[in-house]
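Hey, weird one. I pasted the NADH dehydrogenase [ubiquinone] 1 alpha subcomplex subunit 4 sequence into the form twice and got a warning about non-standard characters only the second time. First submission, copied straight from the form history:
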Amino acid sequence: MAGVFGLVRSNPALAPLFLFGGGGIVGGIAYIGHCLVNGPDVIINKTAPEKPWNRIQPHENAKLWSPNKEFWAERKEKAETAKKA
């Protein structure tokens, strides 16, 4: 690590390269970790039920980002009213 700091100290123009390159690597690892922990189609625990995607209810959104949030809110309300009835 001292080599990187010495290199940046001798040539400050390399600082953005290491900053953005390191940020990209950390972001990529964080995204992979997010997919492993929250992904419905990823099986890490071999003792759990075999098909974890069956735990997702029809009104739940399994996506990281959804542009149509009203659709999922409407679907959840319909599921709750059907459950009560």
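That's the output from the first submission. The warning seems to come from a hidden character in my clipboard, not from the data itself. The mean pLDDT is 82.
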